[in-house]
Amino acid sequence: MKSANLGYPRIGRDREWKKALEQHWAGKLPEEQLHEELKAIRLDRLKVQQTLGVDIIPVGDFTYYDHVLDTACMFGLIPERFAYEGGTPDLGLYYAMARGNKDATALEMTKWFNTNYHYIVPELNGLTPKLTRNRLVDTYREAKQELGIDGRPVLLGLFTFLKLSKGYRQEELGGWIDALLPLYGQVLRELAEAGAAWVQIDEPILATTLGESDLALIARIYAELRQSAPGIRILLQTYFEAVDAYKAVTELPVHGIGLDFVHDGGKNLRAVLDQGFPADKVLGAGLIDGRGIWRADLQGKLDKLNAIRGAVSENRILVQPSSSLLHVPVSAKQETGLDAVLRGALAFADEKLEEIVLLVKANQLGLQAVKDELALAIQNRAALQQSPSRARSDVHRQIAGLASEPFERPSRFAARRETQRQRWQLPLMPTTTIGSFPQTPEVRSARSKWRKGEWSAERYESFVQEQIKIWIDVQTELGLDVFVHGEFERNDMVEFFGEKLAGFAFTANGWVQSYGSRCVKPPIIYGDVALEAPMTVAETVYAQSLTDVPVKGMLTGPITILNWSFVRDDLSREEVAYQIALALRKEVEALESSGIGMIQVDEPAIREGLPLKREQWPHYLNWAVRAFRLSTATVQDETQIHTHMCYSEFNEIIDAISDLDADVISIETSRSHGELIASFEDKTYDKGIGLGVYDIHSPRVPLVSEMTAMIDRALRVLAPDQFWINPDCGLKTRKYEETIAALRNMVEATELARAKYAEAASSV
Ligand code: GLN
Ligand code: ZN
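A: This is the predicted complex of the input protein with zinc ion.
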């Protein structure tokens, strides 16, 4: 039995990686030096794993930006617009693909399966692949020469790579496999020649729902690879879910199969135990959670390991994380600012590797040899479990009585609509914005002065009030119909709320890579969630005091808070969502009783929480919708609930979105080229809806005519009297002048549209 790792964070202990990349992009770090700095980080990561005693250390999981982009570049799959002329793609070209340059737009980026990591989407259109540089050989040799580590190279599997790429038709898939197979074969042969005994080939696509024809293609790929590179052994690695086609996958002609035993709903282990595991293969047993941040229940893991030993011989078992550790922060040892009980229960990448090594040691030397470490780990977990933060009787009582909580508003939408019309008397196609106004350097510096204690709370609050006042005046001058206060007191959508709610903690250095050099530091939900004091009432009420125009209250919804945090592992996500929802409901009620009559509960992350397997979608959507409704159902008919989502792949979840029962929804459309609008052709959506009429991601001020075109297109399928006019998303990343200019054009486009559609609306 050996310990193995599948991938380690790239960002460095102190985000040195991010800083080096960004300095290089800013022209402050020459290429030579960038290479040196990244090499130091790369070797440091290897050394850490070596010191921790990990037997099998991955190499080639490091990157200069993203591993899918690396794979595309390795095979010369560089879209024409980058004017690539062959040879090894240089760094300038590599970063142009990731980030765009003056001549060419960047490749798209999208979510890596169901994680919060985003990869670059390769574009294959008509390209011919060829091996440009076998970067795995270089990195394999480097680890050996510099540190004496005989690492296991990691390669993104051919099938997953193609499935994640775009720019080819389904019928062309087979052709692409044929074109790439010899190149993959060559990469493997060169690795074998360099001395690598094993290669880890990641095929996470195997944990999604695949059809027979896909499985046949996979069988062909691995049969050929095995033939063309007989000198190397393949560990075919899956993760993030159970492998449905267990038999077919474990029978593939490879030398080892890696399975996720954490995020599989227990199915992978059951398959191993019930259906057996091929005697000639190695099992990569993904026992330690590669994505969560909690210490493992080591006793439970040892029990699983024992069970596995009944089906697989000991010398064929690798104990490993469930996936790459890319998704967790580097080390919990740095978190000295956290409460000791909480810190003791955390396991980031380094601590997870310690757990893996410990499991192997326990197996080799017996429990006695690890009894102290084991006892400490068990005690640490128990301490958090028994802490008062998880024993709030008010929260537990409410959750126990959940069935009797209202999940439905007192009246149906049609009745509420009338009440709300009478109350608000809004013009046809009301204009509004999504919530945030520019977070200028001034706003950010004020917040940091207050955080550092240079400014008193009073001074900071009065600064925020000044900003609110400025923007209430701007909105008045523009003539918008529903105002917002501007969110100047927040830096992002979750931290502000997490800091005020019980049950949340914030690390000093718990960064994880989100995309490219961008890292996020998710809050940790470790205890029962509860509202201690109003969070947004003061700012909203202040804004409303300056105007007679309605000001929307502005909250982040339960599912978004959940999906953008690390969540405790002793409760289901569903239950934690309800806890958050109940806390938010109190805030909603506090806003309402302070005279705020429109409340927006943002849920930009509902879609990204969708499970990998389709068959699990209904369950997830069901509790996500219930959590949203729980947070909003107690308001009166005349109170208008808004929600907002920033994406356009809406088709498949439109029924769930409608079930949220929000009176008004605003969503992104301007970048989806009408795809979204088309989805309303066969689905009826009867509630208020604002399709973003311009893209806020660009500094360019959109023309009136462009917005008119968007409105016209939307009104082909939606009724003018349900339509709202707003930008795609919040305006926090924009500058003052461009925001005002864009909104001015938006108001003008609205006036034109009103003139044009007034008649249609009155005849409805
Ligand atoms: N209310 C938030 C804002 O305007 C919404 C942001 C989002 O959807 N990502 O910034
Ligand atoms: Zn948005």
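The two ends are 72 Å apart (CA to CA). Residues 416-762 form a domain with the TIM Barrel fold (CATH 3.20.20.210).
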